[in-house]
Amino acid sequence: MPVGINQPSNQIKLTNVSFVRLKKGKKRFEIACYKNKVLEYRSGIETDLDNVLQIPSVFLNVSKGQTAPSADLAKSFGASTSINDIILEILKKGELQVGEKERHAQLERVHNEVIDIVAGKLVDPKSKRVYTTGMIDKALDQLSSQGAHAKQEESGKGSGAATPSGEDEEHAKMKKNMPTWTGVVTTKSAKSQALNAMRALIAWQPIPVSRARMRLRVSCPMSILKQPAKVVIKAGGDGEGDGEKKGTVKDRILSYVEEVESQGEVGSEWEVVGFVEPGAFKGLGEFVGGETKGRGRVEVLDMAVVHED
User: Fold this and answer.
1) Where are the alpha helices (DSSP H) in 81-226?
2) Which residue from 34, 203, 235, 269 has the least number of CB within 10 angstroms?
């Protein structure tokens, strides 16, 4: 008589799966999902849970197919919490576990997106031409290597190290406060990482770079244009120079514009179209709004003006 094999009733075998893990109380719970669907659900692209979950069950261990006992779920989530609500909580708050191939593919996608954003926002300061994505990638890789080397030097300091002079210490402190770049991660948005990358490239200049200028149209009523400016720019504020700026409203507006493309009267208003450094955009907007009491306008015609071959 053949000997029977007992299969545990709470074991479910799943393949081709990504799973989301959440620790609640002293227990770890998991749900089995289709690959790539969790991120789509969290970003709002996918709304149907049936397309996200491989099976509407909660597990203690997805890999072993071990489902969570009802007693454990009740103790950790509350006796009145339904299975569906538990699954939603794990799906929203849990940590997504992916395989090595999926993790590498996701990292590569974010990396390429960051490089594309940076390449579209930075230019050569002299020619105003964009760099290729390959050159931006190489420059960021150089910064990443420098950052890793600096960390090694910092951790290597200790007994036997020479006491730095005041000048060396000041230089080291300045370098420490400069923006750094250590590479792309998948836990932050590509946009925020691109901003960090641009700050680091501009600060360290592994290649000559600057932010591409914005192209703006500024409109101001003629009745206000020749009046003395009332809003005071403090030392270190946006615009050119330090200290308090004097002159007419028109003079002050033009002080923000690096290069004037055109200017003239349009009806009862004066308009100027020109190129402005991104860092001066906020100050210009606040100045025009304060001086004209909302009657003037600052319109963005192009977020990043570049010259391409």
Assistant:
1) 83-93, 100-121, 133-156, 166-177, 190-204, 222-225
2) 235
Q: CA-to-CA distance for 19 and 52, rounded, in angstroms?
A: 11
CA distance 62 to 35: 14
Q: How far apart are CA 297 and CA 277, in angstroms?
A: 17
The pTM of this model reads 0.64
* H or E element at residue 269: strand 269-276
Distance separating alpha carbons of residues 149 and 147, to the nearest angstrom: 5
Widest distance between CA atoms in the chain: 106
pLDDT in tens, 137-162: 999 999 999 866 666 566 555 545 55
Q: Running DSSP on this structure, what letter comes out for residue 286?
A: H
The chain-wide mean pLDDT, for the chain, equals 84
Q: Which residue has the tokens 């031409």?
A: 129
Give the full edge-to-edge strand order of the sheet including 18-24.
Answer: 66-67, 59-61, 27-33, 18-24, 95-97
The two counts, helices (H) then strands (E), for the chain are 10, 11
Q: Which residues have a Cβ under 8 Å from the Cβ of 89 and sit 6 or more positions away?
A: 22, 77
Q: Rounded to a whole number, what is the distance in angstroms from the first to the last CA of the chain?
A: 82
